[in-house]
Amino acid sequence: MFRLLEDDRGRMESTVTIEIDGYPVIARIGETVASALLREGASWSRTTPVSGARRAPYCMMGVCFDCLMLVEGEGLVRACQTLVRAGLKVQRQTGPRKVGPSC
Amino acid sequence: MLKPDLLIVGAGPAGMSAAIVAARAGLKVVVVDEQPTPGGQIWRGVEANAGTSRGRALGSQYCSGLATVRAFRECGAVYWPSTRVWQIEPTLGTYVTGPGGTRVIAPRLVLIATGAQERPAPFRGWTLPGVMTVGAAQILLKNPGSVPSEPVWIAGCGPLALLYAHQLIRMGGAVAGFLDTRPSTPLRESLRLAGRAVLRSSGELAKGMSWYAGLRHRAGRYVPGVVDLQALGTDRLEGVRYRTAAGRLAEIRTSLLLVHEGVLPELHTARSLGCEIQWDAGQAAYRPVLNEWGECSHPDILIAGDAAGIGGAEAAVHRGRLSALRILQRLGKVAAEPGMTEESCRAALARALALRPFLDRVFRPRGEIFAPDDDTIVCRCEELRVRDLRTVLAGSVGPNQLKAFTRAGMGSCQGRQCGLTVAALIAAAEGRQMGEVQPFRVRPPLKPVRLCDLAGLADEGLSS
Amino acid sequence: MLSRRELEHLYPGIRLGKDVTGGAFSALDGHVNPLRLLMALQQGFVDAGGTVHRGRRVDGIEVCGGQFRLHLKTGVVHAARVVIAAGEASRVLAEPLGMTLPFTLQRGQILVTERVGPVLPYPSDRIRQTAGSTIMIGGTKENVGRDTGTTAGAAASLAARAIRVFPDLARVSAVRQWSGRRVITPDIAPIYERSSRFPGAYACICHSGVTLAAYHARGLAKRIAGYGSWDDVQQFSARRFNVQAA
């Protein structure tokens, strides 16, 4: 839904690669996971635990809690408040969080 | 356990300005902020952007934040970025979680400078991916410098919607269309409110008018008098249907809609401490009950900046300083800067607020926001529509029992997105004024906190 | 009583902490959603022809010509029979009607987590998963009078205990903490009182009204309405405490 401005495309030295659902995503150092996600084709962040509806980042300032994702296995993390770092593994949170020995 | 003289929650214009005055006067000050860098929402990323082409496009008012951020960095206050406050107890025991783990702070006084959030304005389909707030898009503009990939549709009312459109166009983005939801304002009343403010703030007014003119000129389409919106699509936004006051229905195709209906003070922190609030009809928002220093109904808590009532960045600076001066007075200190007096701060605050009544009137939100139809989701977290609340609303059980019966406001956002709408629905159902209805009681934690972080406190000997 | 191994069979989806040696199980125990119960009781009452006057505080009850006069802010209500079941406000209302209700207040704090997949198929008195799939962790017992605030200290000890029993909950987030006041009688059993001086006046206080709701709605209500003998209820009179004192 979003694209980086032209003047920033050349700054490859300031990028890192994160993983969203196993796919590599290039992100700018200093940006948030939600911000990187919004440049992806599928920019939704989770499905709700109630109806399974898809949600995407809405407010980007930490007050709507719709960009909740699993970050390095941690649940209920607001992607809009999480800075990217090289190799960060992020997953869309689908439905209620699974709890158990495997987590 | 850290025991500072003053804990400031929020490193925006108000929090930083207060920290500078207090720390320079010799107080031990701790500032906790959720963001990784200082500046709040308004000056977000200003250290990185000032002096660049992006900074220039964002405007001089934005870049002016750099001076405050630099002074704040050097003032001697302890600054914890990327840290969230999840509970302040009435005894001021404060619990925060950040990069350094979970910590307890026991300050003598607390200044809440948590700013504002955008007004939740529910309409059918507003939870679809592809519907975002204008504020969210502006955050992306500041960092990392993203713009909508296609010419974007904006729907809303308020200075921020105009400012964003203006900034976006300057930075090379494009506005496909602007659905203006601003109700028409009686000219005579607006002029009366503008009054002397016009003379004092002619520059501001001219700027605002130029944004409007630019928008009408450079947006693909400009539609005034929009009263109803509906986002269309199943898994993501595919289009928007809108209705104008004149009754005209129309539909557009788009995968991104930015919405904005003004801003509200952040009240969760103050209300979790039982601080009194009141309904401000002019701003169509609840605000804390404060004296001229920002002192609230809790004796050891002060509130400054937009959290004290929407006033904008400049007013926030002066409110922050005034609260800091009061804090110095209470703790037996004096300001280090010679010009930092109550009189100068008050005069500057009055100037900064001069245009506010006019802005509040011109951008007063449309009534439809407070009375969404039965199909509209009110509580985004629990996915409750107005229809789901009707039976309980008819029983006049009040906000807290309504919350208990329906789960509205019980989700992760803790009522930040539905509280005001629910209060309005209760007021309408019971034929009462907003001022007679209290929003949901706010309970800790203010932000979700992991059980292991909580349990860690027990290991430190903290238990009931 | 169950061994640790038997407990593990009851909770196949989650590990037990190393300190868990066993548990107690009763097939008669269950979980009732208190909010839905309250709503259902109110609805049942209305369906049976009752009227709820919401938001009306009763300032006092007088006896007048064999009738009870309830003084409300908005006026007076007359009744041939009155049941005082106002929790901690009951004492003040019951005293003039010749009924003494000894109790103290106890604060209980509860921690509620985010919604998680189903992991706790059985409720316990300290931790249970609700129909909404959140996990409720309770409850403290505190002597703090009327204070219904919540404390981080209580949250810390509730969380620590939950993790001790179910370590997999460590990274689950708490989204809400709340507290309420319990009405605790000297022997924790309910008090059902019938005024001997003013026939037609009754009082009922207990913790918890959720647990005892089935009895209150059927057995007790029937006896107050005049069906069945009061004899077996008599032992729950507050007079039982005077006997002990003597």
TrEMBL record, chain A:
Give any Pfam family that matches. Fer2_4
Q: Keywords in UniProt for this one?
A: Oxidoreductase
Q: Identify this protein by name.
A: (2Fe-2S)-binding protein
Q: Species name for this entry?
A: Gluconobacter potus
TrEMBL record, chain B:
Pfam families documented for this protein: Pyr_redox_2, SO_alpha_A3
Key words, A-Z: Oxidoreductase
Q: Which residues form the SoxA A3 domain?
A: 395-455
Which InterPro entries does this UniProt record tie to the protein? BFD-like_2Fe2S-bd_dom_sf (IPR041854), FAD/NAD-bd_sf (IPR036188), FAD/NAD-binding_dom (IPR023753), Metab_Enz_Cyan_OpOx_G3PDH (IPR051691), Opine_Oxase_asu/HCN_bsu (IPR017224), SoxA_A3 (IPR041117)
FAD/NAD(P)-binding domain: from which residue to which, for each copy?
A: 5-319
The identity of this protein, by name, is FAD-dependent oxidoreductase
Q: Which organism is it from?
A: Gluconobacter potus
